[in-house]
Amino acid sequence: MGNDKTIDELTEVIRLNPNDAAAYGSRSDLYADKGDYDNAIKDLSQVIRLDPNDAKVYFLRGDNYHRIGSFDLAIEDYNQAIILDPNNAYSYYNRGTLYYNRGDLENALKDYNQAIKLDPNNGNFYEYRDNVYKKLEEAKKNKGCV
Predict the structure, then answer these.
(1) CA distance to 8, 30, 105, per residue, from 132 (Å)
(2) Domain assignment of residue 100, given as a range
(3) Helix H or strand E encompassing 17
């Protein structure tokens, strides 16, 4: 209930100042917390319209696209996040996961390697890269059996 009240308050702030990127961003977080990813995406798109150079916003919109199954749009947003901030390991990791789920193991491996290079202390990155190695090895074995 508190989130709905806060959403209403932020909606009023936006009505009074439609160029308030921070209000759109805050409201998008609340929508995402409620599982209303479509509205979160709409608000993040407004933030991007107002500030097209914020890598974090592309990253967040990519996450929301991922949650609703719009994988191509998620990859596009992670691509833009990487262009704007090539040092964010999580952009590579998330994009790598989308590639992995599509079966694009080569690109997944590249992204996981880059994520590890940027953040070598994150065990999840190694775990996911290991999954790629296992799939590649499995594919190599299956190819030999044909």
Answers:
(1) 44, 34, 6
(2) 87-146
(3) none
